[in-house]
Here is the input.
Amino acid sequence: MKRYFVYFIVILGMFATIVSCSQSDSGGLVDVNTDTDTDTDTDTDTDTDADTDTDTDTDTDTDTDTDTDTDTDTDYDSFAMAADMGVGTNIGNTLENTYIWETGWGQPLVTQAYINGMASRGIKTVRLPVAWDTYSNNGVIPSDKMARVREVVQWILDANMYCIVNIHWDGGWIKNQDNAYEYTLTDDVRNKFKSYWQQIAAEFSDLGQHLVFESMNEEGVFYVNGDSSGSPDYAPLNELNQLFVNTVRSAGGANTSRNLLISGFGTDIDKTCVNGFAIPSDSAAKNRLFLSVHYYTPFPFCGLEEPANYWADVWTYPTTTWGTTAEKSELAAQFSKLDAFSKARNIPVIIGEFGVAIGKNEYVREQASRVLWMKSVMETAISYGMVPLLWDCGTEISRTDGSFTPQFTEVMTAIGL
Here is the structure.
């Protein structure tokens, strides 16, 4: 981050980078990129498209959502779907990296064995962050990139998991990062945003309701007159979220009723749970939208790898433990606030990213504290009917076979999985 103010917004949960990798601009952590200027996220049990008792498709147990679902509207109610989505993870620092497609930030190629391994261990939802703009040709997504994303999506659906596809950081173009129009919405952004979602929605229009689209990552950050030290400007974000819904719905096929994930202001709880943030109107049946926020609080414990000086002589230092009464109360208050907003706006919540760094040198995190924090976030989210998705770039979940570390195994066992 260039500014202390922006940095502390990130501390409140808009910063999508952690889990023992250095911070990347993508919204995740990466071993090879230490750039700190970043914005670094229901079906019921009978609606699986593999259940021959309830699915109206002509195939049987082998159906994996490769076609347009014809189940009743109530099967895809977003609240019921949230209950079925369980807990999940991100495939972080991979298809959203802006250096070399898929492997540029130190991750291996995604394999079907990795996907299946996660599914066999209780993961039910996979968020797939993607950089589209970086690799586009004059605004057109290359066919090989689209095909690769579709291949991974299909593996996830074939494993009977839900998949969330988004437009990730991708250089920060949505908020005009690092140019004269930063934090303002311009026509070129509007046009690109609409065009990319037209292309994405058209490509996946035949895939069923286990595929969810997410409008953006943490880049919905706009300020009055582009001044980040001033007041948040919600109108541009509301406009983009509405444009996202309208564009996907008009693409036809399964998109007319697909559940869509709406990004909060920088995905920050405090800045999203306000009157200025609007839930888009939707031509689809009732309850086809989710709200996306991220949780990395407290950031000195969750994401800060080394002391940082972002404003004058004020330094912020990493912390290595978590679990005091005050810290637990902070977590409880944040989720209570989010739950109240969810109920008031009648929209279920997906915690698109949460996670905690391992740390390094004298700032290595106490493992018991890491486990307690992850367990507390997941338990609290689940208790409110929210869907918690771990931000992971291979730290907690093996990219080879989808197996868990002992620490994450302890967390999953503690929540009953």
